[in-house]
Specification:
55% of the residues lie in helices and 9% in strands. The protein has 86 residues and is mainly α.
């Protein structure tokens, strides 16, 4: 998946690695908590559709899960980089 990040997502160096990791863990946990409160697709989030490059249209439940897994991937990358470089 090739994706050019928007400028507002470029690293600024204003936060430490531990602050970024903590923020991402909190955001990931929030997504997972939202999903756990809506077991079996309860609610109307299935009606909300979003387009994701190279994936197509997904509903809000799928989007929350995607965000949680994407954050997990980046958290693991940060941990691996930290082990290799610190």
């Amino acid at each position: 998946l090739k994706w050019e990040r928007p400028e507002h997502m470029a690293p600024t160096g204003e936060k430490s690695l531990s602050q970024i990791r903590q923020l991402m863990q909190e955001q990931r946990q929030h997504c997972l908590e939202l999903l756990s409160r809506m077991e079996s697709g309860e609610g109307t989030f299935h009606r909300i559709r979003l387009s994701v490059a190279d994936i197509g249209k997904i509903d809000m439940y799928q989007w929350l899960y995607f965000l949680a897994q994407h954050a997990r991937r980046h958290i693991l990358q940060m941990e691996r980089n930290e082990r290799e470089w610190v």
